[in-house]
């Protein structure tokens, strides 16, 4: 999910590589390429058609749709989210991969001044696996919300998995994941497809490891999401969720403050997110479904330096000019990144880790959703 933030900065980034191919990337990002137009969820209202003609000429109708979509205040429906997320990642994954590589998530910054950001991303996967207490190498893994499959290829290689399946809403990402599996000699084990995490196309009890890295924040029905993770895990299998959450509520508190909810609502519009939940909510959902060995952690401080690095690299004349020229989605993404930072700094947004195991068959509860 970090992609949704950082691609905005990457698009406006000052790297020479970016500047050299800026026009085609810009078209890619703003969605003005017609092949992406079909992915737009919301059409502008009819009343916009005449008054917005100059805007439309400037931005193109696909982008105009996104402008209209983003200034609405209403929460998106599950279907609107699905199409919006697919379109967002279809438009931005190529650029992300060119600038940042195959991992679309934060890095592990211990010590905090490390500068190899790709290695920090790989280390995050290894550190999360170590933290989870995974004891024996899994022979199968499902990568739920897989991006272009960086995690599952790394895990398959690390443990010698026989089967690694990745699902994403983005057709571009699924196709690219399969391409990379071939390129890296992992095609026998690793497969990627378009599927919804809330209705996974897998049998019950199918995977030793169920992995979801920075995708849970996109899921509109968290209980269904957790139910699906548990369903596809093998008895005794491990589930690992790494996701953006809001802070736990204090004792006696019923909800976040109005101000906090307003901030999250703005972020949701920009990044195709549904309402958030806390790490404590995940723990409760897992407990209610009979999950075992539940543990949680907050790594907000461990990932924080990533954003400082990204922002530092983008704060200069060329990048500001790039951003000014980059089109609406990119500018909106860059603006919302500062809202995210504010959320982290205020302790509202947390980088949460949750792990558990699925009970062995004899102690399984009857209903696991
Ligand atoms: N885990 C990957 C990608 C994170 S980006 C990585 O760390 O590299 C978020 C991913 O979640 C995208 O691939 C997006 O398509 C996926 N996603 C969001 N909602 C989803 C859903 N309902 N079903 C399946 N995938 C989903």
TrEMBL record:
UniProt keyword annotation of Transferase present: yes
Residue span of region SAM motif I: 141-150
Keyword Ribonucleoprotein in record: no
Record region (SAM motif III): 232-241
Signal peptide start-end: 1-17
InterPro entries (UniProt xref): Erg6_SMT_methyltransf (IPR050447), Methyltransf_11 (IPR013216), PiNMT-like (IPR025774), SAM-dependent_MTases_sf (IPR029063)
Keywords: Methyltransferase, S-adenosyl-L-methionine, Signal, Transferase
Transmembrane segments: none
Domain Methyltransferase type: 142-241
SAM motif II: annotated span: 205-213
Pfam families, sorted: Methyltransf_11
Swiss-Prot/TrEMBL GO biological process terms: methylation
One Gene Ontology term of the molecular function aspect: S-adenosylmethionine-dependent methyltransferase activity
Family: Belongs to the class I-like SAM-binding methyltransferase superfamily. gTMT family.
Name listed for the protein in its UniProt record: Methyltransferase type 11 domain-containing protein
Source organism: Corethron hystrix
